[in-house]
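Problem 3 from the worked examples.
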Amino acid sequence: MRTLESLAVSDSAIAEFPGGTDRDGNIQTGLAGTWLGESIDDPTRRQLNNKGIQAVIYGKVLQELTAACAKIEAGNTGDNSGASHNVDEAWAFYVGVPVLTGVGTGPSPARPAAWQDSG
């Protein structure tokens, strides 16, 4: 299982944002109430944490889509290791964990799908 921290501090994530902010550090300080989160109220700290988490997920989605573009240009469109695999990964991070809907699984109700279930 991948953790949010492993995504925030991975070598590939850091390479995608050279000279960028320490995304994991921003989340940690918001949780602990230190540095950036030291003199702000709880709702603002919560927002700091949420924005930090969103930045990590956004970075991972962009990383997967960038990899998919490179694979498409190289003609690698296979299901298991080609561009479609990277698009599936990006979609999974964007949608979130499937939830039981009573008739199977579906996208998180917090982020409705942009497509319709055809059957």
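Problem 4, a separate protein:
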Amino acid sequence: MKRLFNSSVLTVGVLVALGSTQSGCIVGGVYAYKANSAASALEHAKVLGADRLAEFEYHFANENLKKAMEEAAEASYGDAIVFADLALEFAEKAIVGAKAAHEGGGR
């Protein structure tokens, strides 16, 4: 099984948090936590086949996670957190949609 995200997401998040200024360190840590949560949920959605069964939700979550990483790389942690939250929200919706499709209920 190919992993969509691996521990590099967490590693990048931790390095970004550690490299932040002292006042930004907490925000960087919040971003790292949220991005890792979103990446884990997105990986779970992928395993359930959400990329086929809940396409919109899955791909919207994926694109928001990518954008969160871009914003964090530019030290725009507030924006990164917003995108990571959206990624998590839609990854969870993709999981629900994929589970419903597996049960024959569709979306």
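Solution to problem 4. The chain has five helices and no strands. The first helix runs from residue 7 to 19.
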